[in-house]
Design a protein that fits this description.
By secondary structure, the protein is α/β, with parallel strands linked by helices. Helices cover about 30% and strands about 15% of the residues. It binds NADP nicotinamide-adenine-dinucleotide phosphate. The site of NADP nicotinamide-adenine-dinucleotide phosphate has 24 residues, from helix 6. NADP nicotinamide-adenine-dinucleotide phosphate (NAP) binds near residues 58, 146, 210, 211 and 499.
Length: about 525
């Protein structure tokens, strides 16, 4: 006999108290459900709790990133910068948690190790690292796509006698690098933010770069009170606008093709974008730069010339220009003085594609050329993205099948929210869901999942599982949408490639790319049909 929700510990268990978990808890509680969040950190914040490295900040405009669900919150919160820094973002999320009394239903320092579906009771049993277990009808993962850090597979990491940190496991108290010798491994978005900040006050900084990434200026600025008033007055329009753009950012792609316009007009447009704040150069560019190799080559050449113009030493400039992928085919790191850091006498760039790292030693880093001595080593080496946040939990669905093993064979979900074989488990920004400017996608998906749970509750239904057909169709749609995107031809976390994990070299289409409007349309169709594809029982 299937127990009622009241016979279980909770109606729903949420994993993670980041942006997804906070809002999912708020929404379900508002609808009268009994919910518990398990969070491995000691406070709310998720990504913004963990990533405390120097220079961490938004790459989306602050006011486009915050929650939109509460008018009071929008009225009360002032952003101080166009692209807020991590401490301000964390303060914001803590403010949200205080305002909506979020913490009373969050159990912190609680690492979820397993989640097992039981068909007889149509419920999930969630196991924590301390051995305790809890049962709920629904399991909702708010674990993000970039939350499981990866250290490089380099021998000797544990032998280093100085201090070392992965950027997303940064100490909670400030680290002073002045007069210190610092080595940074990794030059992705995180590395770039870290390097440009550490370079401001360091004894000597050595950057170990495998492959450079394209990067463009952030152009951050303070938000004055009258500007904040104007932003506040325009919030409705702004959030509405973000539902119409491809990835939920404020930037509209330009409807023209690169070669529709004269060379003069093209360069004038690109100069304007390069001088503008944020992702305009990436998301607001000509519509074909991310699909047409010739157009992509042209914008890449434009950005390469900018790098040459900013780095004094021509050999260093060439090293900083990517050769293996075009501009915008990875999420573009936004920088502030990153390239100029290399003009400092105390900053050096080591190209480890030429002189590979052989091992970490007691005193520093040994390359094929020499040994570098450091007080600190910073690993900005990224994440076991997309899969890692799920794989670290032993998730078992119908008949004990493992989600990890299933996704190793093929990554497939329905709307990025459900997976066949894992009834009543819902993912917020799961694989193949809408992502980009994540809070915009998160709010949408949380609302959708909440409506589904309310619907089931009203009808006394206790089981939802995406059909194989629906899942296959979504998988094929995601692959089809991504077919012409140059992004899917490049090795990166977005295509599931991670050199630091055994066996993760097979390139996949890891991300949905069909845009906000078509994602929302499909979700709404499913809801309107009474969630036919989820075989409600
Ligand atoms: P990432 O893009 O995966 O970059 C990792 C870096 O480490 C790359 O330069 C990589 O080199 C290098 N690396 C990895 N393993 C290595 C090894 N064994 N030896 C030497 N180098 C190694 O990770 P990330 O920089 O943390 O960024 C991930 C994503 O997080 C971004 O794309 C973005 O979506 C998000 N993010 C956002 C912000 C923001 O502004 N809001 C800030 C930071 C990150 P290769 O590329 O050559 O493999």
């Amino acid at each position: 006999m299937i127990p009622s929700n009241a016979d279980l510990d909770f109606d729903a268990i949420i994993i993670g108290a980041g942006i997804s978990g906070i809002y999912q808890l708020y929404k379900l509680r508002e609808s009268g459900f009994n919910v518990r969040v398990f969070e491995r950190g000691t406070d709310v914040g998720g990504t913004w709790y963990w990533n405390r490295y120097p220079g961490a900040r938004f790459d989306s405009e602050s006011y486009s990133y915050g929650y939109s669900f509460s008018q009071e919150l929008l009225d009360e919160w002032d952003w101080s910068e166009r692209f807020a820094s991590q401490p301000e973002i964390l303060r914001y999320l803590q403010y949200v948690a205080d305002k909506f009394d979020i913490r009373k239903d969050v159990q912190f320092s609680s690492d979820v190790k397993s989640a097992t579906y039981d068909e007889d009771t149509r419920s999930w049993e969630v196991g924590l690292a301390d051995g305790s277990t809890y049962r709920s009808r629904f399991l909702i993962t708010g674990v993000g796509i970039l939350s499981q850090p990866t250290l490089p597979k380099i021998e000797g990491i544990e032998s280093f006698s100085g201090q070392s940190f992965h950027t997303s496991r940064w100490p909670h108290s400030p680290v002073d690098f002045s007069d210190k010798r610092v080595g940074v491994i990794g030059t992705g978005a995180t590395g770039i933010q870290t390097i440009q900040e550490v370079a401001k006050n360091v004894g000597h900084l050595t950057v170990f770069q495998l492959r450079p990434e394209w990067s463009a200026p952030l152009h951050n600025s303070k938000i004055e009170p009258d500007e904040m008033d104007a932003i506040r007055a325009g919030y409705d329009e702004l959030f509405e606008h973000c539902t119409r753009t491809a990835a939920g950012f404020i930037h509209d792609v330009d409807p023209r093709n690169t070669f529709d316009v004269s060379e003069e007009e093209r360069y004038e447009f690109w100069e304007r974008l390069y001088a503008s704040p944020g992702f305009g150069i990436w998301q607001g560019n000509f519509k074909d730069i991310l699909t047409n190799p010739r157009a992509n080559r042209a914008i890449s050449d434009f950005i390469a010339d900018k790098i040459r113009g900013r780095v004094n030493d021509p050999a260093t400039a060439e090293k900083l220009i990517p050769k293996d992928h075009g501009f915008g085919t990875k999420r573009v790191p936004l920088e502030t003085g990153y390239f100029e850091s290399y003009n400092q006498d105390n900053v050096e760039l080591i190209d480890i594609s030429e002189t590979p790292i052989q091992r970490i030693t007691e005193v520093g880093v040994l390359t094929s050329e020499k040994e570098f001595e450091f007080d600190f080593i910073i690993y900005a080496t990224g994440f076991d993205a997309i899969f890692g946040s799920y794989n670290r939990i032993d998730i078992r669905g119908v008949k004990g099948h493992s989600l990890k093993e299933q996704w190793e064979k093929e990554l497939a979900t329905f709307l990025g929210i459900q997976t066949n074989g894992y009834p009543n488990m819902f993912m917020i920004i799961g694989p193949h869901a809408l992502a980009g400017n994540n809070p915009r996608s998160i709010e949408y998906q949380v609302n959708w999942v909440t409506e589904l749970i309310r619907h089931m509750n009203e009808l006394g239904l206790t089981r939802a599982e995406a059909s194989v057909v629906a899942q296959d169709e979504w998988h094929d749609y995601v692959v089809e949408q991504g077919k012409d995107l140059l992004r899917n031809e490049v090795d990166s976390w977005q295509t599931g490639v991670n050199i630091n994990l055994d066996g993760r070299q097979k390139r996949i289409v890891g991300m949905y790319s069909g845009g906000q409007p078509s994602y929302r349309r499909r979700c709404e169709e499913v809801a309107r049909s009474g969630y036919r594809e989820l075989n409600l029982k």
